[in-house]
Amino acid sequence: MSEEKEAFRLRERLALPPGYEEAIASSSRSDISDNDDESNENQRLLFSSDNNTRNGGDDDDDDDDDNNNNNNGNINVGGGSGGGSANPPQAATSGSRNNNATRPGGYRAPTVRSVRSSFDSNSSFLPSSSSSNSGDDDDGRRRSTESLRRILEVMDIEEPEYDGRSSRIRERISKPFSILGGAISSFGSRVGSRFGWFTSRIPSMPRMPSFLRFPADEDGIINLQRFIGVIIVVIIVYAIFATDVFTMRMNQGHQYDPDSVKRYLIDNVDPENIKHMLKYLSSFDHLAGTEGDYQMAQYVAGKFKESGMRDVRTEEYEVYLNYPNKDGKGRRVAIVDPPEMRWTATLEEQHFDTSKHPGKITPVFHGYSKSGNVTGHLVYANYGSKQDFEYLKSKKVQLKGSIVLVRYFGTESDAAIKVKMAEDAGAAGCIIYSDPKENGMVKGKVWPEGRWAPDDFVQRASVGLTRYQPGDPLSPGVASDFKNKRIKKEDALMSKIPSLPLAWRDAQKLIGALKGHGSKVNDDWKGGIPDVEWWTGDKNSPKVNLMNMQVEHDKQKIWNILATIEGFEQPRKAIIIGSKRDSWAYGATSMTGTAVMLELMRVFGQMYDIGWRPARTIHFASWDGSQYGLVGSTEWVEQYANELRMDGVVYINVGTAVTGPNFKARGSPALQLALNTALGWFMDPSTNSTLLESRGDRSLAGPAINTDSLAFTNFAGMASIDIGFEAEDGDQAIPLHSAYDSFEWMTKFGDPKWEFVPLLAQVWGVLTIVMSDNLVIPLNYADYAVSLNRHLDDLKRWVDEKREKRRRHGHEDSKIDWKPMKDTIRKLRENSLTFNEFVTQLETTLLQLDGTEPAALTVERLEHNNKLAMFETHMLDMSAIPGRPWFKNTIFAPQVRSELDHLWFPAIVDAVEADDWEKARFQLERLRQIVDNASNWIKR
To answer: In this structure, are residues 573 and 773 in contact, taking their beta carbons and an 8 Å threshold?
Structure first.
């Protein structure tokens, strides 16, 4: 093999692109600008394969990307073609392996090709998707499987034994020795054959004269002969490793071609299988904790087992949940005064065809809403933001005791905060309706002729205060199990006024009833409801009765389903992929994520049966209770927080997976290069370019704040990322949380050609392989530092606007010194670049030794990976964000009000919003110290 070819193959194993050295050279010339101004049992449950159930489980066995290229300091430890430092790889198309579809304009989708250049022979690769086009699909799959089996059979993979019950303290004390010991046990028979010449030449030890022996009396005095024997053994073991007589990872048999594994996964994703599962998953109502949800949990657990996973388990929690009455009674929105205007809302969807869906659909309601029966004068408050309520106050509109009507979306996107703003303003109740201006007839044709929502569409939602505390509101910060105490409901952080969702069909009557009361509103307050005038209302507005009498369970069971593929090299290191499973109704768009994950597990199960193992452990998770307030994932993270902070590497989430053709991603900036690696493999069906090229120079702007990633980022301190495909208008373009969110809508408008759903499965799978199997974990904290600096500049501009506003109102200027923070971020970037130089050293050594990795270098590489995995844990502040004690991450957290449009630096933003400038300065210095400590963690 030529030197050039060998270098290219090593770059792939290390996830280094061609042009890597040039990227380092260019990054060194770039700089950041300065603007001057609990327990072993938990360890066993989480990471061991002998656990099947918990608490009686019954199993047997918003893409707000930065529009800036994040290339300052890019070092492509993530692989592929990241950061523009290399040409993108030839890409794979999604869909069936027999896909011969021709794109618009005569373009024919290319077949799957390797990310490598033409230097490498294709003889070791799996058959490309084009090969299957000319033959039977099943034959192609068998050939693909047999090819991978031949590749893997020559590996002679030997899995080291792993005891998940071992003490973490013992691990820390014995870490250097446990790595060496693991190497010895991994190589077994090879050691004897390789060192037989050496051991055969060690002379047998003569028997020591009796007069020189220590007496073995009852006091247990150490026998000198044994002591000398131990010393000799230690010297021999040390000599073996000190001289690098044998190596680590390569001798473990991990010698397969990484492209072959990725291409096997791509080739074997079955689009029709995903569609078949989604049809069942969205065929009946499955609200969290209900009979339908339990049936869905059983189905998913069964599919997990069918995939061949060796460790499938159900983890059960008892959490607070509320439901509408079974008979649908106890809910009402009605005009009750004056008598001539009396009217009662219909509430439910009327036009949806339920013939294809067995059982009843969930009545419209708000999760975690307050039970109550209240009556008050009607007031219209636009989107229900803080500014909207301030406007009403400026117009002298009486809000105390009112029933407030607001619309979904807009400047305040979170339904829970809309209700809280109404509560804080003194309202007695809150109604949230879906306006056709956001997602109805104003946008285009409505269902069934178009994708937009009809007039009886009702968006169910949670009004749980996840921006203050996700999960079970009665067990803040701890898992909801029998061991932990629960707080009283009246002490819990929940809404204190009743609320209900409403269709615009019903809201039209309420808006019309306000005519002549209060003030006419501005155009930006006007919705898309026809034939009405828009007024604010006042204390003389018609009286409206809002009734929401519900069933409440303090300890309702929910079920997370999990499975594991144990890693062979760093089994404690966890790559976790997950998706939500519960739904307000049929939930086809949200259940797409579950269907995709089940298909991924099937393919991973095939790879496992053939003999493939990842270097790091992969956990698959199906979360329950996500719709109420990310309950299932939050309780799980709270239970295993210590283990995740120590060993969690990344969480990859797919929620509402596909609603359109545009790729979306939110996540830690450190994952940018890993994402680029995965995207470079695939063609975008919409643009005839790779997904990486279609994405352009957008970089990850931070983790999602309203998905199951939240607990992993903000409580466990792990890197996280959410991926999917969406319509141009995002969530507004789907009949979210309604009866219309159905399989029929999904196949007609969500993904009519059924090409983006299988494509997402392939992207998710390749990204999982990249994160679990690269020699070096592809996390780049130089990228993280650049993004940190950019968002600090954004924060500074926002703070300056606040200062100017204070000065205009006659307040003393509140100065903040940003320079120490800027200097610390520069230090973080410099330390990150130096830390990443290890990858260059690793590549050089492997090239010099023909791909053989010495044991000492393996030890160094594993320690390098450990530091990478724990970096974001160092961004946690266990004293938490003031006023929101659940949130521990100092860099990312949802702001209390979404209209602030800030994800970064939450404690500082909260302080400035509260007009507490001394606290803002304190929080900035606290942040600087934390970033500095994290920077020192990766200092070489």
So the answer is: no
Full DSSP string of 634-698: HHHHHHTHHHHHHHEEEEEE-SS-BSSSEEEEEE-GGGHHHHHHHHTTBB-TTTSSBHHHHHTT-
- Helix pair 271-281, 291-306: axis angle to 10 deg: 160
Pairing of strands 429-433, 499-502: parallel
Q: Considering the domain boundaries, does residue 306 fall inside one?
A: yes
Instruction: Identify whether residues 7 and 134 lie together within a single domain.
Output: yes
Final residue of a structural domain among 752, 773, 794: 773
| Structure tokens belonging to residue 66 | 């930065």
Residue with the two structure tokens 């299957």? 132
Count of the separate structural domains present in the chain: 4
Q: How many CA atoms lie within 13 A of 37 on its CB side?
A: 8
For residue 652, list its beta bridge partners: 577, 721
For residue 112, give Cα distances in angstroms to 93, 95, 103, 134, 605: 6, 11, 16, 14, 22
Rounded distance, CA 755 to CA 271, Å? 8
Q: Which pair of structure tokens corresponds to residue 184?
A: 């010895």
Give the C-alpha separation, 522 to 734, whole Å. 28
CATH number for the domain that contains residue 487: 3.50.30.30
C-beta separation of 515 from 535 below 8 A: yes
**pLDDT digit string, tens, across residues 206-215:** 444 443 344 4
d(CA 127, CA 113): 10
**Among 347, 467, 457, which Cα is nearest to 415's?**
467
Identify whether residues 630 and 540 lie together within a single domain: no
For the chain, the straight-line distance linking the first and the last C-alpha, in angstroms and rounded, comes to 34
Asked whether 802 and 912 are in contact (CB, 8 A), the reply is: yes
Is residue 419, in this structure, part of any structural domain at all?
Answer: yes
Question: Which regions in the chain score pLDDT beneath 50?
Answer: 1, 5, 8, 10, 15-45, 47-64, 67-90, 93-138, 140-144, 147-216, 218-220, 243-248, 250-254
Verify that 185 and 144 share a domain, yes or no: no
Q: Are residues 274 and 354 in the same domain?
A: no
In 694-789, beta strands by DSSP E: 719-726
Of the candidates 751, 691, 695, 756, the one whose C-alpha atom is nearest the C-alpha of residue 94 is 756
Whether residue 693 sits in one domain with residue 639: yes
Residues 315 and 464 placed together within one structural domain of the fold: no
Amino acid at position 331, single letter: R
DSSP conformation letters of 792-827: HHHHHHHHHHHHHHHHHTTPPP-----HHHHHHHHH
Distance CA 217, CA 278 (A): 73
Dist. CA 721–CA 78, nearest whole Å: 14
Q: What number of CA atoms fall less than 13 Å from residue 13's CA on the CB side?
A: 24
Q: How many CB atoms lie within 10 A of CB 260?
A: 19
SS3 of 546, please? strand
DSSP string covering 94-125? -S-TT--PBPGGGPBPPPP--SS-TTS-GGGS
Q: What is the pLDDT of residues 288-331, one digit of tens each?
A: 999 999 999 999 999 999 999 889 999 999 999 999 998 778 99
Taking Cα atoms as reference points, which of 813, 788, 806 lies closest to residue 872?
A: 788
pLDDT of residue 191: 35
Q: What is the pTM of this model?
A: 0.79
Residues 289 and 337 in one domain: no
Residue 449 burial class via C-beta count within 10 angstroms: exposed 0-12, middle 13-18, buried 19 and up = exposed
DSSP 228-276: HHHHHHHHHHHHHHHTTSSBSGGGGT----HHHHHHHHHHH--HHHHHH
pLDDT of residue 350: 86
Is residue 211 domain-shared with residue 354, that is, in the same domain?
Answer: no
* Domain boundary pick from 773, 795, 830: 773
711 inside domain: yes
- On whether residue 836 sits in a domain, the answer given is no
Domain containing residue 135 = 3-37+72-153
Type of residue found at 564:
T
User: Cα separation of 708 and 631, whole Å?
Assistant: 9
